[in-house]
Write a structure and sequence with these properties.
With 187 residues, this protein is mostly helical. It has 2 domains: 60 residues; 108 residues, no CATH class. The protein is 80% helix and 0% strand. Helix 6 packs parallel to helix 9 and helix 7 packs antiparallel against helix 9. The chain is globular. The two termini are 20 Å apart. 20% of the residues are buried.
Amino acid sequence: MIIGSVPLYNVFAVIVLTFESGHTGTDSSANIRKAFINILKNPIIIGIVLGLIASFINLPLPGIVSKSINNLAVMTSPLALISIGASFEGRKALAKLKPTFAASFMKLLGWAAIFLPTAVFLGFRDQELIALLIMLASPCTPAAYIMAKNMDGDDILASSIVVATTLLSSVTLTFWIFLLRLLSLIS
């Protein structure tokens, strides 16, 4: 469930950032065509497609390539967090406090409050419910900042959301787990 949703989230993020980054200007068909070409040329989309193809054909990777990819994967979030910390501008972030807290509320509480009851109604329990909670209420990925910065999005807002959700998630995830245990939905 989680593995299938991560590429989907990345595709949607690229689409949203492409249309919001100012590359499209007006809604003319030429600008929309240019946006779709930019989406198809995006390294994240290309990586997802190549990864899916390699996975479907069960492409074996040489040991050194596999180890290199794993090492890069392990370094991604820490490097993104270091980049966020090094470039974080508190005054500019304070100017975006309302959208930061609105996005943080939805990411940490809102989506889970909407979809967890539906999942419980559909019979989700234990591990399935925890997996859904992780998808719905975990902090915003640090890669969102890198993506926003590289696609001319609002990198200040993105970094503010990453920082806020990372700081607040220890409280909100504890709350959600406590609530699910209290209701005997997870053991």
